[in-house]
Structures are given as structure tokens and as C-alpha cells.
Amino acid sequence: MKKMALVVMLSVACGSDSDPLATHTGAVNPSSGGPGPSSEPPGTSGEPPGTSGESTGTTGGTTEGPTTGADTTGGLVPSRELCELYLACLAVTQPEALPAAQTGFGADGTCWDGPPDQVEQCITACYTALGDSHEAFPDEPKCMQCTDNADCVAGERCVLGGCYTSYCGDGLVEDDEICDDPSDPNCDNCYSYDQECNPFSNAGCAPGDFCIPGVFTTCSPEPASGPGDGQVCDFEGSFLCGEGLYCVPIVGCPGEGCCTLVCNVQEPDTCPKGRVCQSVGFSNYIGACLPPE
């Protein structure tokens, strides 16, 4: 049976002179920075919730849990309600552990008898534990960490009921990703021979190298060089254009293809007036600035 993050510490939660978080491996010890909310998608960590001591996202960094003094503009304002949500989850997933959990995190729990920094740490622990619980029981509605982005702290977004900083499989290609496929949560299949790198961030290339867009995105030690915007390019061969340009078929182009500005179809349109960012079918986020259809 999977153990929830907070269960480990419950044996010491009852004592008024004890630290209710001291032995909770998934929560935050007031004397340490502690881990934050999970930043991995459900079911990918391979570890029981709350056992890793920290949560690492696709960017390689460790996210931090909510703090009552943190800037949460545009996101969740942490409160004791997070602990109420966690206890509701525990009631349906591990009811035998609920009484002990209520001793520490319930309405009259020892968490709320301490100084403000301990209260803050308890709230952070509940946020973390709720995220861990959602990973362990993704189909349990009571364990959903969020229903929309407003339920997550600033810098995170709601994906499949959990709050994440970055999530391969959410359909958005982050700066540190090369591709993303919402039908493939682990993005195992979206990496293919035609996508070697991300032309907007150079992710996938060695430091200092450049990602050259085209039918085949490739890394190069030199920036792209070739025809300029609106000029004919070799659409049947090299596909080369100048830096920031894409070789694609364009209505009115005097050749098989012409160079035009590359754009990101995920983001607000940045194309010049008279052109719109359109997917050209080579990836799910690399587009070209083309005349309106």
C-alpha cells in the first residue's frame, strides 16, 4: 500500500512540545528549506509520494512549495484550506491514518499552536502532500491538487489535476523541450528524426550551437545563412534561409519555396502586418509567417 507523505510524521504530531514536521520526509522541516510541490507528471517518478525529499522538474531545478509571504500574484494564496483538502483526500485513500493526521493538521491541530513560521511550513507541507497524493491516486477526485491554474502557486499551472512548473505531455513546448505530445504523457514518441532541436531556444544543441529550422531541425555551430525574407529558397533540397527564416511554399512565390519569418504557433502572433503565424505541418509548434488563407 502506498504511504502518503504526511503519514510518516504523525506519530509525533500529538505532542505539544514536539515539532509536527520533524520526521515528515515529504513535508518541510522548519529548520530546513524542505522540498516543494511535485514538478513531475503523475506516475513518472517511480517513487512513493513524499519519499524523495525533493521534486525535480524537466528543467532540472527543484520547485518550492507555497509560502504565505511569497509573491503569488496570478496564483494561489496559500492558506489552511490546503490542509483541509489534504485531510479530505486522506479520508478516502487512507482512512486509518486520518485521526493521527487531524491531530497535527486538523482544525485544532498542533500545527496551528506554533509561531507563524511553523504555520507557514505546515501549509507548505499540506500543499506538497496533496500533490504527492494526487500522483499516487490520480483518479481520486478528493486528491486533485487543482482544477485550474488559479489553484496553483505562481509559476505553476494545473495539468490533469496537479500543479507543475513544466510537464512533458501538456501540449506546450517549453524552452528546455524539443517537442511535446499531449497524447503521449512521457513524450517518448514525439522525438523523431526530423526534430533534433528547438529553434526558439536552441535546446537539444551543444552550448553555443544554433538550431536551424526546416523540415529537419538540425544543430549547427554557425547561425543560419542563405536567402532573405521573401527570396526564393531550395525547397526540394537544402531548405536553407537566413537566420530566423523558414523555407516553405508560399502562394505567389516565384519558386517552389520562399523564405519567410519563423514563428511559434503556441505564442501570440508576432508576424508582420499582412502575415499570420501558421503551422506548416513539420512540428506542433514551429510555424511560418504566411499570408492569411
Task: Describe what this molecule looks like in 3D.
The chain is mostly loops and 293 residues long. It has two domains: 7-164, no CATH class; 210-290, no CATH class. 14% of the residues lie in helices and 12% in strands. It has helices at 81-93, 98-105, 116-136; strands spanning 157-159, 162-164, 210-212, 218-220, 232-233, 245-248, 257-264, 276-279, 286-290. Strands 5, 6, 7, 8 and 9 form a five-stranded antiparallel sheet that branches. A two-stranded antiparallel ribbon has the order 1-2. It has a two-stranded antiparallel sheet with strand order 3-4. Strand 3 (210-212) and strand 4 (218-220) form a beta hairpin. Helix 1 (81-93) runs antiparallel to helix 2 (98-105) and helix 1 runs parallel beside helix 3 (116-136). The protein is elongated. 41% of the residues are buried. Residues 18-74 are annotated as: Disordered. Residues 41-57, 64-74 have a biased composition (Low complexity).
Give a summary of the structure in a few sentences.
The chain has 293 residues and is mostly loops. Helix content is 14%, strand content 12%. The protein is built from three helices and nine strands; from the N terminus they run αααβββββββββ.
